[in-house]
Write a structure and sequence with these properties.
Elements: E1 17-21, E2 24-30, E3 37-45, E4 48-52, H1 59-71, E5 80-82, H2 88-91, H3 94-101, E6 104-107, H4 109-120, H5 127-136, H6 141-152, E7 166-167, E8 173-176, E9 179-186, E10 193-198, E11 203-207, H7 229-236, E12 248-251, E13 257-258, H8 260-281, H9 288-295, H10 305-321, E14 326-329, E15 335-338
Parallel strand pairs: 4-5, 5-6, 6-7, 11-12
Antiparallel strand pairs: 1-2, 2-3, 3-4, 8-9, 9-10, 10-11, 12-13, 14-15
Length: 340
């Protein structure tokens, strides 16, 4: 029988909140991207509050947070922010929470470092080097120009980040109120993404690692051209094996749902189908750019191009790691993939 997720709650509009379990509040926040929203979580924590992910660093998000805290927390100040990973929609306001409320930041150490690098736009976020990486994988000037135009529209600083962090680790138990939450880290979407599982309450805050309707972007980065992020992502699913299908999953995008193992099965099948398509396409040498139209059934615009080529490269490198494709630089300087 086909997987049928259970969605127990209605859609929220931007700025709305809903208590999905005792002391666990769902907050929907707007985003200035094609993916136009993020789900954030406010948890009762004894006499205070813990925030799970912060939202994007924008005036609109800050204003909504003030209204939410006045309404739900009675003006109370959150003492702690736990961020699942470094992307700006998830931790863009961590520094604001620290400055405004004195909240400490908890997250995995490598994700905290990545956020600082992203804010500096150096090393892992050198966009000139991103351009060069796209070009050597077949990107046209139109696509790289479009990528730069997309970035230039993001006027506000992406991040406000504290200079200190309380490091969390895979398998660590964190007490929030009277309940213990287990940290589950996973790679692929980012290097050390953290989900939180409360076995006693049958609740999983999955972040971007498991989403109910869309697939998390799994991209190859120019800093690790021979990496295998898709392999890391698929391997991470084993860590969720002890979670029951009755568990309420609280994802960062879409709706809370039940049926985590059915969804993991769907995600595995989705990526396996893409891998088989990429393998067939590369019967003759192909750049990643040439493979994109075979993996995506929609037009890819400038806002989507970096995600599309990054995800295409992740699938191609998964096949290289499995010995099913070869990756070679041609005489024209372009990197091409082909079956051995």
């Amino acid at each position: 029988m086909a997987y049928q997720p259970d969605y127990p709650f209605p859609r929220l509009e931007d700025g709305q909140t809903l208590e999905v379990a005792d002391g666990v509040h769902w907050i929907r926040m707007p985003l200035p991207f094609a993916l136009d929203h993020i789900n954030l979580w406010l948890l009762a924590d004894g006499d205070g509050w813990t925030v799970i992910d912060t939202g994007y660093n924008s005036a609109a998000t800050r204003d909504i947070w003030k209204q939410v805290l006045d309404g739900i927390a009675g003006g109370g100040a959150p003492a702690r922010v736990i961020c699942s990973h470094f992307h700006p929609d998830h931790m863009g306001l961590a520094g604001w929470f620290a400055a405004e409320f004195g909240a400490s930041l908890w997250m995995t150490y490598s994700e905290w470092l990545q956020a600082h690098l992203a804010r500096s736009r150096q090393l892992t976020h050198d966009f000139k080097r991103w351009d060069e990486f796209f070009v050597e994988n077949g990107a046209s000037a139109q696509n790289t120009d479009g990528f730069r135009t997309f970035l230039s529209r993001l006027d506000e600083p992406w991040y406000s980040i504290p200079q200190t962090v309380r490091r969390i680790r895979d398998g660590e138990d964190i007490l929030i109120g009277d309940h213990t939450w287990r940290v589950i880290t996973g790679g692929g979407h980012t290097h050390e993404h953290a989900s939180l599982w409360c076995a006693g309450r049958d609740i999983l805050i999955s972040g971007d690692q498991i989403l109910p309707r869309i697939t998390s972007n799994i991209s190859l980065w120019y800093t690790e051209p021979e990496g295998d992020p898709l392999g890391d992502y698929l391997e991470s699913f084993a860590k969720f094996g002890a979670i029951s299908d009755r568990t309420l999953v609280l994802p960062s995008h879409g709706y809370p749902f039940r049926g985590v193992h059915g969804r993991i099965g769907e995600l595995r099948d989705h990526h396996e189908a893409r891998l088989e398509t990429a393998l067939a396409v590369c019967a003759e040498p192909r750049t990643a750019d040439e493979v994109i139209p075979f993996l995506f059934d929609r037009d890819i615009g400038p806002d989507d191009y970096s995600f599309a080529i990054g995800e295409t490269l992740a699938h191609l490198n998964r096949l290289v790691s499995a010995g099913r494709l070869e990756r070679r630089r041609s005489a024209d300087g372009l990197i091409r993939y082909r079956r051995p």
